[in-house]
Design brief:
3 helices; about 85% helix; NarG-like_domain; transmembrane helix; NarG-like domain-containing protein; transmembrane
Length: about 60
């Protein structure tokens, strides 16, 4: 039960990240003061965390009886 967060929400966070990447336009980021470099660093860091959650969740599903 303690791994529920990883198993249930890793894929959901990944989908939300993809949707945000497609829906939010570059004009919005420029308007709020986010540079192109800041956007990409945030995407890499956030994506790295989420992909770790997905991999751990898949491993838990594979190993659990």
């Amino acid at each position: 039960m303690k791994w529920r967060f990883t198993k249930d929400y890793g894929i959901i966070f990944a989908l939300i990240g993809y949707v945000m990447g497609f829906i939010i336009t570059e004009k919005f980021y420029i308007a709020i003061g986010v540079t192109n470099e800041m956007y990409h660093i945030g995407a890499i860091v956030g994506g790295g965390i989420v992909v770790s959650m997905v991999v751990v969740g898949l491993f838990i599903i594979y190993v659990s009886p």
